[in-house]
Amino acid sequence: MIFLRLFSHRLFSRQWWKTTLLVVLAMGVCVRLGIWQLDRLDHRRSFNARVEAQVKQPRLVLEGAALEADLQAMEYRQVIVTGAYDQNAEVALRNQAWNNLIGANLVTPLRIANSGKVILVNRGWIPLEDFTSNDWHKFQEPGEITVRGIIRQSQTRPEIGWRKDVIPGQGEAPLKAWNMINVAGIDSQLPFDLLPVYIQQAPNSAWIGMPYRSLPKVELSEGPHLGYAIQWFIFATILGIGYPIFIRKEEMSAKSRDLPRVTSTTDHIETTSRFIQNVVGGEWTGKG
What we know:
- The chain has 288 residues and is α/β, with parallel strands linked by helices.
- Helix 1 crosses helix 5 and helix 5 crosses helix 6.
- The two termini are 25 Å apart.
- It has helices spanning 2-10, 17-55, 128-132, 183-188, 225-257, 265-280, and strands at residues 60-61, 78-85, 91-98, 101-112, 118-127, 144-153, 177-178, 197-201.
């Protein structure tokens, strides 16, 4: 009954309605953040399911009918393809690390044998000094070769801290160093069409030189999203339950010390801030 009386008479009284509004807004923010974390959890689970499904698939031989398949839906599937590199159209992916050393990855179009199709291959890492000197010819792999790796989607957003690449316009010199493997962007500066994905070449025990090859480590956990969502919902619940108790405590304290009533906007903001601090500190129950 005390709670009901507080809710009906005090929460929206002239003294407390502004503070109540601020607390309700804070509760809404907490609930929204909780829903956002659940949405991120759902996206994470969907991503994990897609990756696991592709990892379990047999290795795709990229020839014939497979070249017409929806390769963008096959990210992380193992792939094998035979062809010859077009070294003249090679580009580099800058700011790549290998054992804490900075360098670049060489990305080279592979003309797939007996098909007329071309796909980009991330061949691996070279040192910074070789990248900056444009001394890439020593890493060439002439003739027909077989590439093993995984399918990767075109990168549409740069990694944190890097800017998007400025795609060269018609008649401008092709861009040799890129911040991301933007297949469509690289395609726009080439005289031939690329398949919409690229291959991340896998390490091979028989290959002991550069470029150094590696595959991405894909984390398939659900992350902290569920825990964060529960935390935000708990905060919203504590605000809703603790606020009436806080008002009662404040009024009793003010009455015992003959303090003025909360009236100004500044007073309401300060009172709300004090209440939220008590919630965070676990003191809203009035203990201590």
